[in-house]
Amino acid sequence: MQDTTLLRSIGFILTPGYGLMSLASAVEPMRAANHLAGSTLYRCSFYSVAGGFMASSSGGGFETLPMAAATGRGAGELDLALVVAGGNPMLYKDPALVRGLRALQLKHVRLGGISGGAAILAKAGLMSGRRFTVHWEHIDPLTEYGPDLLIERALYVIDRDRYTCAGGVASLDMMCALIAAEHGSAFARDVSNWFIHPRLRTADEPQQGRAAQRFNLHHPVIEAAVELMTSHLADPLSPDHLAALSGGSARQLQRLFSSHLGSSMMAFYRNLRLAKADELLQQTALPLLDVALLTGFTSAAHFSRCFKARYDMSPGRRRHIASGVRRSSSCAPSRSVVPTSHVRLSAAHRVAQFAKSHGAEG
Questions:
Q1: Which residues contact 340 (CB under 8 A, 6 or more apart)?
Q2: Nearest-5° angle of CA 60, CA 65, CA 71?
Q3: 3-class DSSP assignment, residue 39
Q4: What pLDDT digit, counting tens, does each position of 224-277 carry?
Q5: From CA 31, how far away is CA 176, in angstroms rounded?
Q6: Contact, 169 vs 311, CB < 8 A?
Q7: How many Å apart are CA 34 and CA 342, to the nearest integer?
Q8: How many CA atoms lie within 13 A of 166 on its CB side?
């Protein structure tokens, strides 16, 4: 039975271009908990650095209070403050936000991040010695940024005074875990069922489906080969090695890739590596040679040729365009809708969409 005398105040700190679904999946369980309990268990408030209307990546948004309302003298006490970030948090910089987050830490407010929010906390030095997670697209860039960070590929991680989740529907799972800890698992299941989400996922479940689901594969040998490819991007395996570890022959694998994906085996493998390189170019400031080496290319020149053949632009041009989109987004009026043409596809989506295209081996 839930404790209706316990009131928690949760603040959501919104950054430009945050994901509306990630935020709604965190806010709505608290509203449902209040409704089902018949009393106010959770009070939610919304903040941004300057206050005012904060648009999400889809254009809809929330009116927010300035950070000073949560950190200044006489400010109401928050129990938990969650940074909600979308887009590319690795290149997001706002000293005022960092100062506000550190002020909350000094007030002993529990901190957390939704989607890319944990990356902002980590870059501010606020995740040291804490296990945490972040959206899968940011894990590799963040690992390169801070090799000692305790990043986990989980749906959500609650480590003492830090609450982080991968965003999307994982926000609902984390908030239901919080509800379960404070009001019991039965009540948390009632909240989850309210949203036609009958099974509360555990924290350590994977963020992404296996290769069979992501690429619609229906043969165990090709599924095993693709799984091996995705885990060996920096150190590509040879066709014979892939075949031996997948339980088939190189000739069989070539036939399977051609029939299932419309591509040769090594062309598909190269496109996986290029998709990861494209992600690193847009999310990090790593030198071109480092990006090449991290994705299995032996030289920057060879990488640049393959990248241009794949994306019809040089790696430098890709990074320049990504930088320009970020600047435009940060300067755009807060109520504007981000055009669909500016939405960047994830690496996995790009590869799945274009896996059938052919290219030179390499």
A1: none
A2: 140
A3: coil
A4: 999 899 889 989 999 999 999 999 899 999 999 999 999 999 999 999 999 989
A5: 12
A6: no
A7: 38
A8: 22
